[in-house]
Amino acid sequence: MLAGVAVLCCLPVLASALPVSVPKLTPQQLENRILGSERMSFSGYAESNATFGLPPLPAFSSVTPLLDGVTRMRVWQASPDHWRVDTLSDAGENDTYQAGSNAFIWDSGEQLLTGIYGTQVVRLPRAADLVPSALAIRIISEAGPGAKLGLLPPRRVAGESAAGLKITPASPQSTVAQADVWASPGTGLPLLVEVFNRGSARPALETQFLQAGPWTPDASVLTPQRGPGTGFTTTTPAGFIGVLKNLDDEVLPGSLAGFARQPSPVPQIGVFGSGLTTFAVLTFRRGTGRQLLSDALDAGAAPLTYDDGTGAVASAPLVNLVLVHPYRSPDTFLLVGLVSKTALERAGAVLAAKPDQDFDH
After folding, report:
1. Mean pLDDT, residues 317-338
2. DSSP per position, 300-343
3. Are residues 30 and 24 in contact, defined by beta-carbon separation less than 8 angstroms?
4. What share of the chain is helix, strand, coil (3-state, %, to 5)?
5. What are the C-alpha distances in Å from 16 to residues 13, 70, 160, 183?
6. Does the predicted TM-score (pTM) go above 0.70?
7. Which domains does the chain have, with CATH numbers?
8. 162-176, pLDDT tens digit by residue?
9. Region of poorest pLDDT, from 14-18, 23-27, 73-77, 152-156
10. Distance from chain centroid for Cα 286
11. CA 183 – CA 219 distance, rounded (Å)
């Protein structure tokens, strides 16, 4: 496996000497082809490189490596709800299988396969979210009708000439300055995604296929295989969400810092803003929230002091995070998203001043 990965890593260097040529497409045509590739069956090897720099919180230990450093992924997709992504590391691999509404997680270190039966309405970010095809389609879908589209010079990616699409969010309040996507002009499959924060010439997040192409679905690849001596356990989506199981039911206001609240499939999570200018508010119960705040401060987050509470703030490319503990509440609010640190601090001030009774709708 390591030898194969080494060869794949050399492919971009070898391919860079080849000429680049793509058919003439308008930005809208290229966008439509990218969106149309969502149902494509393909396989490939991809790597993401993120430099977010958020404080490493123990409660979110599974997320931290995705946001800081290189993530190596082997990908097979038969359809949007039937795929497999293996995350490779020196310590082994973790494989995620999506089979309709059910998912299976293989941990090579624990030699354990876990079946998650039922739709995961809420979950922490995972490596599969960083696959170029998944990330590009999500960015385009979230950018909204007001986003500006433009063409970029073609590049050679994963051994083929790729057409470039530049996406600029409409709102200046988004931390995302632009997202650049290079895709196969024939199939529309996204091969490379670069996401830039404001004021930076280097992407805070880059993910690309080093090898990718059409694939005939194979049930033996998409079905977890257990060897002798391995374990198997089952759980429900609610039992596999880690620290998110400690969310409290809190009635939140209809707007925060000028951002309107949007419908959320999970009552315990408030979503404010829209598209690429969105942040979430999560309310953690008593001990869990206090531990999150303590861990954030220990990890280097800057302390915040409100008239009605205390907290912490961490600023990073693309994502900002604020924790607020009101003096008059046993709970702690976590605010995180694609808006400025100043906006989150203003929103945190409103939550810190929350009266004993619930907010009005």
Report:
1. 93
2. TPEEEEETTEEEEEEE-SS-EEEEEEETT-S-EEEEEESB-HHH
3. no
4. 25, 40, 35
5. 5, 21, 10, 16
6. yes
7. 18-239 (2.50.20.10), 247-352 (3.40.1000)
8. 999 999 998 889 999
9. 14-18
10. 27
11. 27
Give the dihedral of Cα atoms 217, 226, 4, 17; nearest 10 deg: 30
Q: What pLDDT is recorded for position 359? A: 47
Residues 128/146, Cβ–Cβ less than 8 Å = no
pLDDT at 14 over 90: no
**Mean pLDDT of all residues belonging to the chain:** 89
Cα–Cα dist 179/312, whole Å:
29
CB 335 within 8 A of CB 348: yes
d(CA 187, CA 23): 12
User: Does residue 59 contact residue 295 with C-beta atoms inside 8 Å?
Assistant: yes
Distance CA 67, CA 173 (A): 21
Q: How far, in whole angstroms, is CA 87 from its chain's centroid?
A: 15
The token duo for 226 is: 């257990």
CA angle 328, 331, 335 (to 5 degrees): 110
Lowest-confidence segment of 155-164, 242-251, 256-265, 345-354 by average pLDDT: 242-251
Which amino acid appears at position 196 of this protein? F
Residue 90 confidence class, pLDDT cut points 50, 70, 90: confident
Rounded CA-CA distance 67/57 in Å is: 12
Element (H, E) at 4: helix 2-15
Are 157 and 54 a contacting pair, CB within 8 Å?
no
- What is the Cα–Cα distance from 38 to 41, expressed in whole angstroms? 9
Phi-psi region of 29 (alpha: psi -120 to 50; beta: other; left: phi over 0): alpha
Cβ contacts of 176 within 8 Å, gap of 6 or more: 169, 195, 196, 197, 198, 276, 318, 338
